[in-house]
Amino acid sequence: MKAIRIVIRGIRDAFKSVFRNFSLTTAAITCSTITLILVAVAMILSYNVQSITKDLEKELTIIVYFKEDRTEEQIAELKTKLSNMENVETYDFKDKETWKNELKAYDETFNTSLDYFTENPLLDSIVVKVKDVTHLKETTNEIRKYEYVESASFGEEAVLENVIGAFNIIEKITVVMVFALVVVTAFLIGNTIKLTIFSRRNEIEIMRLVGASNISVKLPFVFEGLVLGILGSIIPILITVYGYVILYDHFNGYIFLSMIRLVKPFNFIIYVSLIVLGLGSIIGMIGSYLAVRRYLKI
Amino acid sequence: MNLIQIKNCYKVYNNGVTAIADLNLTIKKGEFVFVIGASGSGKSSLIKMLYREERPTNGSVIVGGINVAKLRNSKVYKLRRKLGIVFQDFKLLPKLTVYENVAFALEAIGMNSKEIRPKVLKALESVGLKEKVRSFPNQLSGGEQQRVCIARAIVNEPKLLICDEPTGNLDPEISKEIVKILDKINKEFETTIIMATHDREIVNKMKKRVILLEDGVLTGDYLKGSYKAHESN
After folding, report:
1. Which of A102, A238, A267, B83 is deepest in the core (most CB within 10 A)?
2. CA nearest B192: which of B224, B160, B156, B157?
3. CA distance B85 to B162
């Protein structure tokens, strides 16, 4: 019973204090709001870059053409070789007849021009999907070694490599940014709560003098940190939810001529909101716990 | 029965100042004791050791069965719940009303609000402030503020009331009033009272036990004593 009373009193006092120390409370909430907005934006950016990179990587396949004089055994051989290769996820064999039919169906010019040939001029092919695009080049070179392979390539090699490299760097930068901002938020909220506690050190002193146990001195302040953290994350969450939905709808889910697909708002923003809320409250609680501890060493 | 037992107690501060030297003292339940001495005589150090604001450097200070010297920070509240403390500077919370200030002491130790109300009103009644429950400290006179402080100190019905120069900031008339209230508490509730003071007039008039400290050494312990007794000796 007593423990429940202490907890209830802690929560009540936390709210009381939030309203009674209005100016300091506002300062704490404002600075956590600003930093949490930055955290939310950085998280959204980081996750989108990750998803874009993944999308791009999915598009990356190696197209292998067999030489004209390949034998059925050689096709079978390459298939087993591919199955044994570590970096190969899937492969898809397409013979030249299928290519021809597909091309003819695709375009009238192809249809007529392909009819000029008595023999099919196209080559049998295999489309290979890899597990890890960073080893795309090695895998391609490995496939090129076989004498019955006419060519193996993955599109505009240099360009693709650069794009993937750039996105990898951007991804890393945004991740570092998120972490840096989390640290900054922790520091700011902790410091502001230290200020509110400093302005109330008389209260803490009297609590100690009249025989309040350490836990019942700490609890109201820890709850206060929690309340500040939660209040500080409301605006960032609203901005995240509405801002991202509006952005997504505005661009119809794609930016830069439908090349880059944005992550769908739901459930993505719910996760971001929950993380922001969790960060705000945990940082608030830890910040005030550490700050109040200093005043208990009487 | 001894409520306070101090044996071979020394208090040496980090800067090398010896505030208390080889103090031996016992105070019985229900006594009213004045602690007198010039500034820097160790009065405050003695008082502070009684509620474990300071720890003795050597020797033992036992208050209500608790050895203050061995009491850890996290267990200090167990000692503090057995005693009430009245300060020279009142230490009231300016944003709380008189009632809330007194109730604060009981809320802080997790008491039920149904139990708190009658206790607070009773304490305020015994210091004569029942009609001021809704006032804030800055609306009260110095004497009234000190009475709130006393009400807060006795609300938990402590066995021991420690007063650190409670009349230091008050004029002589009000000081007498305060000491009268303390005397009443001492008689009515049999609360042991230890009061450090400079106030010659009060000590002379009350004819209570007087403990005299000089440079941290106990130089006089007079039953029904006074400044006069000390001066004539």
Report:
1. B83
2. B160
3. 5
pLDDT in tens, A42-91: 888 888 888 877 777 777 788 888 888 888 888 888 888 888 888 888 88
| B124 close to B46: Cβ distance less than 8 angstroms | no
Which amino acid is present at B119? K
Q: Is A214 close to B81, i.e. CB distance below 8 A? A: no
Given an 8 Å threshold on Cβ–Cβ distance, is A210 in contact with B74?
A: no
Distance from CA of A197 to the nearest CA of B (A): 14
Q: For A178-234, what is each residue's pLDDT tens digit?
A: 888 778 777 777 777 777 777 778 888 888 888 888 888 888 888 888 888 898 899
Q: What number is the average pLDDT over the span A5-19?
A: 80
For domain A61-153, which CATH number applies: 3.40.50.300, 3.30.70.3040, 3.20.20.70, 3.30.1330.10? Answer: 3.30.70.3040
Return d(Cα A248, Cα A50) in angstroms, integer: 17
Domain locations in chain A as residue ranges = 2-56+161-294, 61-153
- Per cent of chain A over pLDDT 70 is 94
Distance CA B232, CA B198 (A): 18
With CA atoms as reference, the chain A residue closest to B109 would be: A212
Residue of B17, B116, B97 lying closest to B57 (CA atoms):
B17
Cβ distance B77 to A296 less than 8 Å, yes or no, reads no
Contact list, B107 vs chain A (CB under 8 Å): 9
Q: Which residue from B108, B112, B152 is facing A212, i.e. has the nearest CB?
A: B108
DSSP state of B88: T
Instruction: Locate the DSSP E strands across chain A.
Output: 61-66, 88-94, 125-130, 149-153, 254-255, 260-261
* B chain contacts of residue A20, beta-carbon cutoff 8 Å: 95
Residues 7..36 of B with a Cβ closer than 8 Å to A: which?
Answer: none
Name every residue whose Cβ is closer than 8 Å to that of residue A170 and which is 6 or more positions away in sequence. A49
- Classify burial at B4, counting beta carbons within 10 Å of its beta carbon; exposed 0-12, middle 13-18, buried 19 or more: buried
**Stronger pLDDT, B32 or A124, i.e. the higher one:** B32
CA count, 13 A, side-chain hemisphere, A153: 8
Identify the pLDDT of residue B56: 94
Tell me what ipTM this predicted complex has.
0.85
| Interior/surface letters B81-106, b for 16+ CB within 10 angstroms, e for the rest | bbbbbbbbebbbbeebbbbbbbbbbb
